[in-house]
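Changelog-adjacent note: as of this version, every example in the card shows the full chain rather than a window. The one below runs 56 residues end to end.
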Amino acid sequence: MAKTNKELAVEVAIAYIESSSNLKYPNGSSRNLIKLQSVINIIKEVHQTLESLDKD
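Full-length structure tokens:
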């Protein structure tokens, strides 16, 4: 069964969170946690992009 654009957008956001949490600076420190609003924006923007691609 094909995934919906909403499901795909959430998967992209999860991948972004996982990848950014694994980033380390050269001095060994890591990035700050991602803010909730950033996650919401990622989901919205990816969903909008997928929706516009489907229309083409």
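Structural remarks: DSSP finds two helices and no strands in the chain.
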